[in-house]
Amino acid sequence: MRASKRILLYGGRLVLPDRFVEPGWVLIQEGTILDVSAAERLPSADEYWDVQGGYVGPGLIDLHIHGSAGVDLLTATADDLRRWARFLLRHGVTRFLPTLVPADPAQYARVRAVLAEYVPEQDRDPGAASILGVHFEGPFVSPRRPGALNPRFFRTFRSLRDVGELLTWDIPARPFVWMMTLAPEIEGGLALIEELQQRGFRLAIGHSEASFELCEAAAGRGAAHVTHFPNALAPLHHRQLGVTGWALLSETVTLDLIADGHHLDPRMIALVRKVVGSDRLALISDAIAAAGLGDGRYEIWGETIRVVNGRTENAAGNLAGSVITLLDAVRHLVQWGIPLLEAIRMATLVPARVLGLEGEFGSLAPGKRADLLVLDERLRPRLVVHEGEIVRFSEDSSAPPLAREETWARPSGERLISPPREDD
């Protein structure tokens, strides 16, 4: 049972969706944010954490990630998932959607069994990011825009038999989100969208050459997001706008981007932001198992993927995911001139909206789950609150979390202290 103690983080610069508040404080209890304020008088609490000099924002949410730290979802065991989730928390991600590439049905069944074993127990490890659901990237995508996905496993939709094994995943967790990236132009694409929407899936268009009109029809049936825009989409053409032109002209569709410096030129991100606005842009990592391991050759998805200077490529020379973390993507946007407030919102509140979970996650607000991230001036994790539990880090964010009883070594001497002020 989660401890009922009241924990106060104070003195930091609060990162709210529309502004910074400095200095401010956040009061949490039993895994929930009780209050967020800039009031000078601090409320009473059982633990006081001085985070002066830090940016205090919501934990990051990764919508699209295949693996990290040597772990790939297709081959992971429950212990591997735990190792992966601990790696992500060390890099500021508190919630994520493990993402499946098209594969043999037997591999899907194996992943389902591993998730069913791991997810119900995951909250027992506050030092690990939490799995929010599953993202199927395919298999209902276009062979004309495969990217690094294996067309051997692509499918069309004629009846429920074609999707049956994807609808029988009984994972006991709340919330648990089902997301699928698909191409509306495949045989039965619109019927598939209708079927999945009725079953509660969050639907995205990706790996697609759909026409503008078909995208409109798909959106009317519930496909309201575009995956790793504009990668693996038909290029914008002045007489055939396709998914790219439709997404840019829409006033409601959300898009996600891979800000690794390889999938998109930074100026392209600036252009998309100028046209669409950051309120409808989400960051994703699209990370693969090689993330965190450095350059080299890796066997992933049944093929050799090379990583050279941080760029991935398969044997065909196609980009094959990334090796960044979501926090790397935030840092990159800031380096490229996008305000920190927007960059963090694109990794927190917008992903929560895409998943329909903005009422629980994605911002510092009373009543939301107590997932918080404290960053230093170089945007490195100093401290994470996950499900109301404090997890501290050394100066090197790539190092494992310190034991909770250890003192966090920082020149300013941050430590658990007695309250300087209390309400009457």
User: The CATH topology of the largest domain, please?
Assistant: TIM Barrel
- What is the tally of helical segments? 9
Helix share bin: 10-25%
The number of E-state strands comes to 23
Q: From the alpha carbons, calculate the radius of gyration and give it in angstroms.
A: 21 Å
Instruction: Please tell me the CATH architecture of the largest domain by its name.
Output: Alpha-Beta Barrel
CATH class category of the largest domain: Alpha Beta
Residue windows where pLDDT falls under 50 for at least 5 positions: 396-424
The description of the largest β-sheet is: 9 strands, mixed
Task: Choose one word for the global shape.
Answer: globular
Mean pLDDT over the residues? 90
β-strand percent reads 25-35%
Structural class: alpha/beta
* First-last Cα distance: 30 Å
CATH superfamily of the largest domain: Metal-dependent hydrolases
Number of domains: 2
Walkthrough of the structure:
The longest helix has 14 residues, at 105-118. Residues 396-424 have low confidence and may be disordered. Strands 1, 2, 3, 4, 5, 20, 21, 22 and 23 form a 9-stranded mixed β-sheet that branches. Strands 6, 9, 10, 11, 12, 13, 14, 15 and 16 form a 9-stranded parallel β-sheet that branches. A 3-stranded antiparallel β-sheet has the order 17-18-19, with no helix packed on it. The chain is globular. The chain has 9 helices and 23 strands. It has 424 residues and is an alpha/beta fold. Helix 1 crosses helix 2 (105-118), helix 4 (212-220) packs across helix 5 and helix 7 packs antiparallel against helix 8 (340-346). A hairpin with a 2-residue loop joins strand 7 (67-68) and strand 8 (71-72).
